[in-house]
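Deliverable D4.2, example record:
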Amino acid sequence: MALAAADNFHSRLVFWLKIVLPLVALGLLATLFLFGRPISPEDAIPYASTDITDRVKEPRVTSPVFASMTQDGTALTIMAQEARPGAAGSNIAGQAQAMSALMEMPDGSNAQITAPLMQMARASQTATLSGGVKIVTSGGYTAVMAGMLVATTKTDVTSLGPVDATGPPGKLHAQAMHLGAAPSGGYQLDFTGGVTLVYLPKGGL
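Output generated by the structure prediction step:
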């Protein structure tokens, strides 16, 4: 008799739980909807404010990366904050803002270049950097200048205007700077045109 009573109680308990538990779940869902944070249409999509029309008229690429190998074996990697293609029929292939480039020469040396603006030319396959250019070489030289011309098919970097630099000898000023292949092999950095040097002993820079 006791076993039958227990089975009866268990059956009644299961029966009522089947009714009560779904009601409790519905109540919890209703509470979530009633007290949940109201949804604002303005918070929907963060990209909704983008001017699509402007993007169509002036196409651009964010954080582009351009990588190539020059004819003499230098690995050239160019990165930028934003890039835009040149106009159709123009000699300008494109331009980029806040660019940085890494040149890794076959002899193990390298040069890092940064500039606010870069413009790529189709015919000459060169990049003109402007707005204040900085180059740092693995040989210990750091040079700044107004502009720079960089070839994209060979290791050839030429300053556009005077250069101020620091390096192993000290501080120097020159009317021009060139980084390229040396006649005897390898690569060399040349400063020319009224070069003035302030010699600083090692550790004095």
